[in-house]
Amino acid sequence: xxxxxxxxxxxxxxxxxxxxxxxxxxxxxxxxxxxxxxxxxxxxxxxxxxxxxxxxxxxxxxxxxxxxxxxxxxxxxxxxxxxxxxxxxxxxxxxxxxxxxxxxxxxxxxxxxxxxxxxxxxxxxxxxxxxxxxxxxxxxxxxxxxxxxxxxxxxxxxxxxxxxxxxxxxxxxxxxxxxxxxxxxxxxxxxxxxxxxxxxxxxxxxxxxxxxxxxxxxxxxxxxxxxxxxxxxxxxxxxxxxxxxxxxxxxxxxxxxxxxxxxxxxxxxxxxxxxxxxxxxxxxxxxxxxxxxxxxxxxxxxxxxxxxxxxxxxxxxxxxxxxxxxxxxxxxxxxxxxxxxxxxxxxxxxxxxxxxxxxxxxxxxxxxxxxxxxxxxxxxxxx
Length: 383
Fold this sequence. Notes:
It is a single chain. The radius of gyration is 22 Å and the shape is elongated. It folds into 2 domains: 9-27 and 266-380, Lyase, Ornithine Decarboxylase, Chain A, domain 1; 30-265, Alanine racemase (TIM Barrel), CATH 3.20.20.10. The two termini are 22 Å apart. Helices cover 28% and strands 22% of the residues. It is an alpha/beta fold. Helix 7 packs across helix 8 and helix 8 runs parallel beside helix 9.
């Protein structure tokens, strides 16, 4: 998919009239991405970083860099190379606890990474075998303090409980590394209190382990405004974090770091798919599915906004529930929820799914030869 285009479109209708796209298409609004960045920069009291995994597209990274983001949450050497190319000079936090010694060495030597996250004592030994202890190297211990309500839980794979975090922090400090803490309440977290609970736990861990906590990474989890979401506004999260840090640490509060992914990029992009087939007013078959841009619909429970286009006009009329299938010859390629669509929807109509900037372009596959997706810059898209 290309980067900055020679032509931009005012809205989805204009794009359809001009291009009649026959491939799955991402409609990107630079205006909406910049608005989201500004919301976090003005609301969050700390260092704003971007979780590259949510959408590693070059145009996203270039705009993040242009808009003043100076640090990025990376999970692999490949993501580090992307940041070097599209956000040169930026700081990288290697926040994926699972990494090999070879990957650690490359991060340290080739990409200049000096911040590494761990969640097990064996990972500290692994790190020390590659990087000599130094105050210039930050080891961030990832802990967990219970599952957040209504979130995609990361705690089954990542994070050590409070007692374990105390032990690791004590050892990290004794070895001579700079020691920090981090947590992640879970993607699309609709429970602002989860941040308060984890910040209080961070205070107890720092006190019990005797570390001077210079930085606390509150992770991501900031939710998108899907129609199916019951999450409060982002200001509630920012205020909850600010108050919890003040209550827990007082005048010795650490520098805060946030690493939103979904919260930054979801609203920047809508997804325009074309109907290949309609069957019995019960099912529609689209030109992309769960092996491509709709993969996350199988993992996270959410319902994006949508509208149906016939040419450059929105299709209306009587509607009811349809099952949506992707284009592949695999029966798994079916969305688990029913979607309300006009009963007259037909071949060559379009469905525009809003709020599709996160975990869509990052999860594409070429399965069955359906390997092309196009990118258009459109100012006014569905949100």
